[in-house]
Please model this.
Amino acid sequence: MTTEHTKSGGYPEAESTPGGAAREGTAPAADAGAGQQDDLAGLSAEGLKGKVREARETAQRNWQHFLHSAADLENFKKQAARDRQDAVERTRRQMLGLVLIVLDNLERALAFADAQGGSGKALIDGLRMTHRQILGQLEAMGVRPIEAAGKTFDPRLHEAVGVVPSHDSGPARGTVIAEVLRGYLLNDDVLRPAKVTVAGGGQENGDT
Model:
C-alpha cells in the first residue's frame, strides 16, 4: 500500500510538479532580497550615509557620461552637416566653372563675328541672345562679373598675366590696363579671378 499511495499522488509526486519548481525558482531571488535587507539592516547610521553618498556619486558620474555622450553626438551632427554643405558648395563651384568655360568660348565667337564685319547677322543675333540668357541665369545664382579694366589691381580679384610700362601721360602704376579673361564673383567670394595686364614701372628705371 505504501508504494501505491506514493504513485497515486503522494508527496514525492507533488514536489516535482511545475508549481513546486516555480516555488523553488523564486527562492533565490527572495533570499537575495532578504540578504540585501540584512546587509542594510546591519549598517549603522554612518554606514547608511556612506551607502547613500556612494550611490549619489555613481549617479553623478553616469549623468556626466551621458552629458558628454550627448555633446559628442551633437558635435558629430554639426560636423556632418558642415561636410555635406562643403561638398555641395564644391560641386556647385565646379559646375559653374564649366559654365564659365562655355561662356568664354561664346564671347570669343561673338568677338570674332564682330571683327568679321557682322556677316551672318541672324547667327550672331542668336549667339547674343544665348549669351544674355547664360548671364541672366548665372546672375540669378549669385554669379556676377568682376570689374577689372581701369581699376586698381587687387590681388584678391585679379591675376596679373602681363605688365606694361607706365608713362607720365598714361595710367598710374598698378592700374589694370586690359582684361585678358573675365573674372567672376559667386556672391561675395571669388569664383574665378580676372586675368589682366597691369601698368608697371617706367622703362627708365627698369621697374616691372
